[in-house]
């Protein structure tokens, strides 16, 4: 089977084309750096089968970040039958830079001129035939988004893949061409594959190339020595880059005919004037975040009920709460109009409640333990987790809209100003914001960060950005607190906890960058994509991924955990079955009581001396397997602890029940949320962190997570319970900061004065040009 | 204990052991991460993820 590689600049539409060719639904995002690993699929047409490999985006073949190395190595080492070079037609000159490098490799290349629909919409024109004549490679105009030109592209690619191709270079200026030609001849003699490409790279003294062919460095130096001393200047890499751009400008730019435009600013530029404003950019982002959380979690939509001084409940309106229709209506309105997220959660809760009642009825004649096991042990735990699916989907639908529209990339741009002060670049914001979905892909996405210290710091703080699995903990406990206090402000508490995670992340980054992870702030390398309306299909793919993952997890790990929890809570060490009211002498209770003192400074330890006080300690530990387990544990145990327990709103009622049973205080509950949000993430995220972090850093990372969560939660509990403890805590923090400042003065950072690599320079130039275009 | 009560216990135990073995085998095969098993989520390479190359 033939193998074709998709290569191109970041965010030029490679994955969209990959999906179109292979029928896959790979994740697509409107920002550069979504794909960080190669992905394979099969293109089928009749009897024809072609393996398609989607590569991470690269600006040039001088890799700068780990995922760029993957692309370069694949093209050079795996020798695909054809490279389909996807070129963003709206940004022709910069994209053709990579093309000039691909041309030098002995591999058939076809250029896919993507986003031609956007070019036509702007009134510009690109003469693909003229470009093909000038480049000497097949050029096909396509629109991956609309599926236009795909058949012709594949026809041309299959056709060119049948003939071998020898590399050619655009570096014709003497004496550079002379040097490249000499090295090329020497490499051909040494039977090196793709000799022209390697000759150019060796002439540039490319780091990877020098590492691969150290024996040839001396030869290149000898060739260089045959020219006058100042022929190539001090930085040959820059000379080559300059020569490429000059060639592109002189030869290819004429194929692009721009329409005379009266107004220079595009719609995206005009939107950016407001959304990336240096003063209003961040307040606008916070307002957007608040709106998202309000629409997802608010139990009084737009605070209509509060403003009207309270609306009547359905019962007060004379409706019968036992009536099924009224119960369904109560999912949408009951004394207040609920937000869409809450409405859907209520419907889900109502449905799971019906299933629970059905199971209860079915188990009525069975022995007590069977009913307890099936209804309380299995169903209650599972239902509590499943009931949060609607809210998770609503929240991620909003995040996906922000991401697909291109707004998230702007946030990274805005955040760069803040992050830079803390020792990170704005680029680090993208993996952090991905952490709101799941820590695992977010940690993998840190491969787009070039600096090791920046990468390590980012991987460590990603779990502080509360992922979807932590959402049930936040919502249930916030609901429990406010249910007890009778105030419908769940949205505000959840938003505040999300912001707490972000503040802790930024504070700990400052701490790391000032102590163990010191170093220069890397240049900001984010390219701002144009805004576009999110595609419905794309949104549905994102949500389907989330739903599938969540359900699979619920019916495997979480279900298995609830079974184990139920068994451990209903058997004693002498393997005797215990009824619900005897749970306090169970295996689980004794383990919980053993670890309970550890959490005493956090408010959910030994002070919860009454029966069931150990539940919080057990829940915190089961959360290490999967964070959803915290609520599953609550539900399973609360259902067993309270005779006649009936969940009206899954998750929330369990917390209120446990509050009453254990006497836990509100500051301790908030500390409990904070501990679960900030402590060691689930096992899967730990395994990813271990793989992504440099050697030897993982054990320190575990310690960092435990110490941070413990300190922050203890501070919340202490200050919440005894306000005056704020002063000694502030004194400790101030002493720590003073110590760091003094230590830093004695140990100044050694400035890294190494010149920028080609990739670095290109990306910085790209961002600078975007910044200029945006008028920022 | 009747036969079907024993069956419930056996099924529950088999399920828990099965999930544990499944997770273990996945990890041994170098798969894993998010456990979603798909090849099109954001991590992309979760079905064939390898340790990133040395910079």
What does this structure look like?
The complex is a heterodimer of chains A (776) and B (55). With 776 residues, chain A is mostly helical. Among the domains of chain A are: 2-160, P-loop containing nucleotide triphosphate hydrolases (Rossmann fold, 3-Layer(aba) Sandwich), CATH 3.40.50; 300-337, no CATH class. In chain A, the strands form 2 sheets. Chain A has a 6-stranded mixed β-sheet with strand order 2-3-1-4-5-7, with helices on both faces. A two-stranded antiparallel ribbon of chain A has the order 6-8. The longest helix of chain A has 34 residues, at 536-569. Chain B is mainly alpha-helical and 55 residues long. Chain B has one domain (3-47). In chain B, 47% of the residues lie in helices and 0% in strands. Chain B has one helix at residues 3-28. The radius of gyration of chain B is 17 Å and the shape is rod-shaped. Residues 35-55 of chain B have low confidence and may be disordered. Classes of the chains: A mainly alpha (776), B mainly alpha (55).
Strand order of the largest sheet of chain A: 2-3-1-4-5-7
Q: How many beta-strand runs of chain A?
A: 8
**Roughly how many Å apart are the termini of chain A?**
49 Å
**Assembly of the depicted chains:** heterodimer
> What is the count of β-strands of chain B?
0
Kindly provide the radius of gyration of chain B, computed on alpha-carbon positions and rounded to a whole number of angstroms: 17 Å
């Amino acid at each position: 089977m033939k193998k074709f590689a998709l290569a191109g600049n970041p965010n030029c539409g490679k994955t969209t084309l990959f999906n179109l060719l292979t029928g896959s639904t790979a994740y697509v995002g409107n920002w550069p750096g979504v794909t960080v690993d190669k992905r394979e699929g099969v293109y089928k047409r009749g009897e024809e089968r072609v393996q398609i490999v989607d590569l991470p985006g690269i600006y040039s073949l001088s890799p700068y970040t780990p995922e760029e190395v993957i692309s370069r190595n694949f093209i050079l080492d795996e020798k695909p039958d054809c490279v389909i070079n996807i070129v963003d037609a709206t940004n022709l000159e910069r994209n053709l830079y990579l093309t000039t490098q691909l041309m030098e490799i002995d591999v058939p290349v076809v250029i896919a001129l993507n986003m031609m629909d956007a070019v036509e919409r702007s009134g510009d024109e690109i003469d693909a035939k003229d470009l093909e004549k000038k480049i000497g490679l097949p050029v096909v105009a396509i629109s991956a988004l609309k599926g236009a030109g795909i058949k012709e592209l594949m026809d041309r690619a299959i056709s060119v893949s049948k003939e071998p191709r020898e590399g050619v270079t655009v570096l014709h200026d003497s004496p550079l061409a002379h040097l490249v030609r000499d090295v090329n001849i020497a490499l051909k003699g040494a039977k090196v594959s793709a000799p022209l490409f390697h000759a150019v790279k060796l002439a540039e003294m490319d780091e990877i190339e020098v590492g691969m062919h150290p024996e040839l460095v001396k030869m290149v130096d000898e060739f260089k020595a045959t020219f006058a001393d100042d022929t190539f200047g001090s930085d040959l890499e820059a000379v080559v880059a300059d020569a490429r751009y000059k060639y592109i400008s002189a030869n290819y730019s004429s194929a692009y005919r721009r329409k005379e435009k009266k107004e220079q600013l595009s719609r995206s530029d005009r939107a950016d004037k407001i959304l990336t404003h240096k003063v209003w950019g961040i307040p606008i982002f916070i307002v957007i975040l608040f709106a998202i959380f309000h629409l997802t979690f608010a139990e009084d939509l737009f605070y209509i009920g509060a403003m009207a001084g309270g609306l009547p409940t359905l019962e007060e309106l004379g409706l019968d709460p036992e009536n099924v229709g009224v119960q369904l209506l109560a999912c949408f309105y009951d004394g207040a109009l609920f937000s869409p997220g809450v409405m859907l959660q209520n419907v889900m809760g109502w449905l799971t409640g019906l299933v629970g009642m059905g199971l209860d009825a079915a188990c009525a004649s069975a022995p007590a333990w069977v009913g307890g096991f099936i209804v309380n042990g299995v169903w209650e735990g599972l239902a509590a987790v499943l009931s949060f699916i609607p809210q998770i989907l609503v929240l991620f639908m909003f995040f996906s809209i922000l991401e697909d529209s291109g707004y998230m990339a702007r946030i990274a741009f805005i955040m760069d100003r803040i992050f830079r002060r803390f020792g990170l670049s704005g680029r680090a914001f993208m993996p952090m914001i991905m952490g709101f979905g799941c820590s695992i892909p977010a940690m993998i996405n840190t491969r787009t960060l070039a600096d090791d210290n920046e990468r390590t710091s980012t991987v460590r703080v990603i779990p502080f950005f509360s992922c979807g699995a932590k959402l049930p903990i936040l919502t249930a406990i916030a609901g429990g607190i406010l249910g007890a206090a009778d105030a419908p402000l769940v949205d505000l508490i959840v938003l505040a906890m999300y912001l707490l995670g972000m503040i802790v992340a930024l504070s700990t980054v400052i701490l790391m960058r000032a102590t163990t992870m010191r170093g220069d702030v890397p240049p900001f390398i984010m390219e701002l994509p144009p805004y576009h309306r999110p595609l419905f299909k794309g949104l549905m793919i994102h949500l389907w991924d989330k739903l599938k993952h969540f359900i699979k997890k619920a019916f495997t790990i979480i279900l298995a955990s609830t079974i184990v929890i139920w068994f451990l809570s209903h058997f004693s060490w002498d393997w005797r079955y215990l009824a619900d009211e005897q749970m306090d002498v169970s295996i689980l209770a004794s383990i919980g009581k053993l670890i309970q003192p550890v959490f005493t400074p956090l408010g959910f330890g030994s002070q919860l001396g009454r029966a069931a006080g150990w539940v919080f300690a057990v829940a915190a530990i089961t959360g290490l397997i999967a964070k959803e387990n915290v609520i599953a544990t609550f539900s399973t145990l609360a259902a067993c602890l309270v005779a006649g327990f009936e969940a009206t709103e899954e998750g929330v009622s369990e917390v209120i029940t446990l509050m009453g049973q254990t006497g836990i205080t509100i500051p301790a509950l908030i500390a409990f949320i904070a501990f679960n949000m900030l402590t060691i993430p689930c096992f899967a995220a730990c395994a990813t962190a271990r793989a992504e972090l440099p050697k030897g850093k993982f054990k320190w990372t575990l310690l960092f997570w435990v110490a941070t969560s413990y300190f922050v939660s203890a501070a919340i509990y202490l200050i919440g319970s005894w306000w005056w403890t704020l002063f000694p805590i502030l004194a400790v923090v101030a002493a720590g900061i003073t110590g760091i400042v003094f230590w830093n003065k004695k140990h100044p950072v050694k400035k890294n004065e190494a010149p920028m690599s080609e990739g670095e320079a290109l990306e910085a130039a790209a961002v600078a040009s975007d910044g200029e275009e945006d008028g920022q | 204990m009747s036969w079907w009560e024993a069956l419930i216990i056996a099924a529950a135990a088999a399920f828990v052991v099965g999930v544990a073995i499944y997770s273990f085998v996945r990890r041994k095969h170098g798969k894993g991460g998010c456990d979603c098993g798909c090849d099109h989520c954001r991590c992309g390479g979760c079905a064939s993820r390898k340790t990133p190359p040395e910079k």
